[in-house]
Amino acid sequence: MHIGFLGLGNMGGPMARNLLKAGHSLTVFDPFPQAVSALVEAGAAAAASPAAVAEANVDVIITMLPTAAHVKEVYLGKDGLLAHASQGVLLIDSSTIDPLSARAVAKLATAQGNPMLDAPVSGGTGGAAAGTLTFMVGGSVSVYDQALPILSAMGKNVVHCGDSGNGQVAKIANNMLLGISMAGVAEAMALGVALGMDAKVLAGIINASSGRCWSSEINNPVPGVLDSAPASRGYSGGFGTDLMLKDLGLATEAAKHARQPVLLGAATQQLYQSHSLQGYGGLDFSSIIKLYQMGNQA
Amino acid sequence: MHIGFLGLGNMGGPMARNLLKAGHSLTVFDPFPQAVSALVEAGAAAAASPAAVAEANVDVIITMLPTAAHVKEVYLGKDGLLAHASQGVLLIDSSTIDPLSARAVAKLATAQGNPMLDAPVSGGTGGAAAGTLTFMVGGSVSVYDQALPILSAMGKNVVHCGDSGNGQVAKIANNMLLGISMAGVAEAMALGVALGMDAKVLAGIINASSGRCWSSEINNPVPGVLDSAPASRGYSGGFGTDLMLKDLGLATEAAKHARQPVLLGAATQQLYQSHSLQGYGGLDFSSIIKLYQMGNQA
Amino acid sequence: MHIGFLGLGNMGGPMARNLLKAGHSLTVFDPFPQAVSALVEAGAAAAASPAAVAEANVDVIITMLPTAAHVKEVYLGKDGLLAHASQGVLLIDSSTIDPLSARAVAKLATAQGNPMLDAPVSGGTGGAAAGTLTFMVGGSVSVYDQALPILSAMGKNVVHCGDSGNGQVAKIANNMLLGISMAGVAEAMALGVALGMDAKVLAGIINASSGRCWSSEINNPVPGVLDSAPASRGYSGGFGTDLMLKDLGLATEAAKHARQPVLLGAATQQLYQSHSLQGYGGLDFSSIIKLYQMGNQA
Amino acid sequence: MHIGFLGLGNMGGPMARNLLKAGHSLTVFDPFPQAVSALVEAGAAAAASPAAVAEANVDVIITMLPTAAHVKEVYLGKDGLLAHASQGVLLIDSSTIDPLSARAVAKLATAQGNPMLDAPVSGGTGGAAAGTLTFMVGGSVSVYDQALPILSAMGKNVVHCGDSGNGQVAKIANNMLLGISMAGVAEAMALGVALGMDAKVLAGIINASSGRCWSSEINNPVPGVLDSAPASRGYSGGFGTDLMLKDLGLATEAAKHARQPVLLGAATQQLYQSHSLQGYGGLDFSSIIKLYQMGNQA
After folding, report:
1. What is the largest CA-CA distance in chain D?
2. How many helices (H) and strands (E) does chain B have?
3. pLDDT at residue C297 tops 50
4. Which CATH number goes with the domain that contains C180?
5. Does the pLDDT of residue B154 top 70, yes or no?
6. Does the beta carbon of A191 lie under 8 angstroms from any beta carbon of chain B?
């Protein structure tokens, strides 16, 4: 298949490479020339604009962009995809954005004859490189079935979440819970240690008990508890604090539009905002435990 | 062995029965005569006071009491255990109380020649009846080794958590995290449903993703998601809201003494307090999701 | 002067009437015909669109609209004010919207030769009718000076808050604090009463002490404490819960863009969201005290 | 009158001096000899224990102690006041403690023939020295009337709050609201400044609007806004962060016993705990604004 790919950053770059490896031909676009040239070296063709991608006789277009504003510009702008794509071209947006924007863009695409899916991912840059991402997909079943082989070239779990926008809903609901859980683990671990417990012993008990969660078992925030966790390598790698902050912002914004209270979600957003304010936005989000430690500034 | 047992309520009663089944002889006390007579029918001897239990030539005394005030009265009162127990009698308190009180009582016990452990449990009334409780034990290794065979007659996991009081620390740290996680799951599920997702689909995605936790996998708060969860039987059974509220109170109180911030823990305590105020104190703690639903009063 | 006025609702209607009373001539627009006809009866001329207002040879145009989306449409749309206003016409937006949108619109207006102010108000529908509103004005001093006589016909306090957008900043900062204070007063009063104090005695002490604030002195949330407060007439009149919720949403959104933590502001937004979810969105915002009372649903 | 006075610290010392100035004779006790000798130089007699004060033929005994544990020890211990005071001696406790403890001690005192009042103060060390404290008094009207002349020698406002314990209720309800208001002012000011406003202009608008409160008008947390506020002298003097933290702890503890939710109160307690953890416990509580500022550690 001939696939257009827009957005070749830390996530989009390795995703596009996996499509090449799977035997697809690619026409790519990114505003940063070096991101484009890296893909061209790997076998992709370069296009000069979103419009040029859309006019390159592609079967499918995949986008991986940082914000809803970028998505709207790339899809709805004068030089954008909708204005230039042929009828029937399948559109897949893997950006993480708010569900309302996702639904609005998909509705316009569908109305002009372009089936569209929202398909945000989890799994991080590691999963993008290894082709083990999880895709949370919103849109009709038939369009999902059509996209499945392509998405499977980039991820190992491709989950249909329901109608348009529901991929985004699943992503932000999961990540809001993830943020709450991580801050909760940080509080529980910091409390236990302050009261005299060994962190490894406490983590072991929690992980065998009702407090267990991904944040305690896989990404424990206390250095030394898990050798494989970012906490044990200075909170480098992993899922950055500012990315968690972005997703918590999307969750509370969506909750506002749905008139749905999310008290812990909103409090957690503020905790991550405080943590980012202290200069830790680039560290793995498990570094939130620094908020609970004396002299964390050192 | 001859074991004294004080506190024969919903937890202590079945725990004492399991000791009888394991072949131990028991002398028991409880202020409610019917609780005592039920155990006497099962083969235990009755005592008229804590002092009488202590003077019944026991090797071990186990207590299962509702609050730190009860523990202090039973151990430190004029008719209490310390004033009447022979040197060398092993004392095990399975009540859930604050670590400071646990340490204070154990220090006095040890000073007069009675080794003592704090050994709070998790697993609920079901685990107490089935003998599958988890014991979180604080005290020296040698005393823990001495108690292990006895505790194993009542539970399947007996975990040494470190020095005196650390059993309580592990319990309240785990349960604080549990309360936060459950409220977080409630918010994430309510948000997802409000935004148009099917609850079962969302739970499936979360449980395969980084948001997964015991509260989403085993005790999902949305009715119908898990047939085995309290949510699917009107929030009956399980771990009551007011018991969660008690443990959150112990956690924030211990945090105050340790000068340790626990922002989400304190917020969650208030959410459970609000939920209890609406009359839901007796429902399983997963019913906290009612806080996030329109017309929850119905 | 000849003034254009767009948005003739509960606030805009009486504001426009006060301009007529002050001797100005008015050309007005509102999508609801009955809102327009009421003003026409009072002496205004009707226009069929924002463009028609702009082309009616006006000196000044004032807008009073519900959301930033409306403001953008009315100012920036094809039939909007910027596309049709003559150079030099003074533009005053009295809507309460986020500062970023206010600044963006004002920048475009200024660039094409139309001086513009953001001038949100406080004082409610009572103040609009009585001409006693407070205007919080953002923009250059010279433009502010030009607008002062016009705004003074509708309000008794006209405060210059600094550059463009700062009127909105002052409004949302004040109202975020107001929401926090009211919820704080509700908690303090509910706590005192639960602990056995008479509400009037407690209010008296607080109002003579360091806890005093507008919400305790002027709008005390306990019925019977102040005869003049909405609480003493079933929480009718006053400043509605859903309006407070809107302003808290603007505040937390602006905080997100400024990367500024507002933990109590965000928690208060969620409390008001919970309160609105229970069906109290139309009551005065002091009704938040119902969240803290048993059986508040009755 | 002959008055016994126990607790001669930063508050009790100057309060006792004012009683001497008013012509009363004093017998005093404090565990720190230098605190006693300072009062002896001013004309008081020294006693070697609480019992010795009670047996010094006093008409009234006033206590000013740091915690409920101290109050219980001084009143209820073997060498304590109740065991040694003559019938009819009036007891006044000006410590700030939880209402339950205050009521428990007063009940025992009254039962043995010693009328007792709880009479915590506000006004700080400055008010103690100047004799301008506010006393919030719980107890019967007749006992209040009896105490009024004595309290008036130390304060300018003496308010009867109702039955026993209500002085403490008024104090903690007011101070909880004060803590919430101050954190709210800090958030509003930090948000406004982050969005581009001048702090003095914003404070001026808030103080003329519905956000106004003691914390914005008298103790504004931004340096330079008020020359007389602690913020303008490095947050020295004033009411310390750790004292606010103590009062918030009393408020949330009393709320727990009353089963009353106080969500913002609990969140504010955690914010002050976080602030104290960073080493700011000794600064005026308005320094909480540092939590909201980048690089606050500097």
Report:
1. 66
2. 13, 9
3. no
4. 1.10.1040.10
5. yes
6. yes
Range of the domain at B197: 168-292
A298 touches chain C (CB under 8 A): no
Task: Render pLDDT for C254-266 as a digit per residue (tens, 0 to 9).
Answer: 999 999 999 999 9
Q: Are B158 and B173 in the same domain?
A: no
Of the residues C144, C163, C182, the one at which a domain ends: C163
The three-class DSSP label of residue B3 is: strand
Q: Check if A278 contacts D (Cβ < 8 Å).
A: yes
Q: Please state, rounded to an integer, the average pLDDT across all residues of chain A.
A: 96
Please compute the mean of the pLDDT values over residues B172-177 and round it to a whole number: 98
pLDDT band with cut points at 50, 70 and 90 for residue C294: low
Q: What is the mean pLDDT of residues C191-217?
A: 96
Do B223 and B293 meet the contact criterion of CB atoms below 8 Å apart?
A: no
How many Å lie between the alpha carbon of B88 and the closest alpha carbon of chain A? Answer: 27
What are the helix (H) ranges across chain B? Answer: 12-21, 33-41, 50-54, 68-76, 81-84, 99-111, 124-130, 141-152, 166-194, 199-207, 214-217, 241-257, 263-275
- Establish if D297 belongs to a structural domain: no
* Residue A175 within any structural domain of the chain: yes
Whole-number pLDDT of residue A197: 96
What is the separation of C-alpha D254 from the centre of its chain, rounded to a whole number of angstroms? 16
Q: Is D228 exposed, middle or buried (0-12, 13-18, 19+ CB in 10 A)?
A: exposed
State how many domains chain D has: 2
Q: What angle do CA C40, C46, C51 make, to 5 degrees?
A: 155
Question: Is D46 a member of any domain?
Answer: yes
| Predicted pLDDT at D297 | 37
The per-residue pLDDT for range A277-298, each reduced to its tens digit, is: 999 999 999 999 999 986 543 3
Has residue A190 got a pLDDT over 60? yes
Q: How far is D210 from chain C (nearest CA, A)?
A: 6
Told to judge if C156 belongs to the known catalytic residues of this protein, a careful annotator would answer: no
**Chain D residues 221-260 with CB within 8 Å of chain C:** 251, 254-255, 258-260
Residue D236 is assigned to a structural domain of this protein: yes
- pLDDT above 60 (res A193): yes
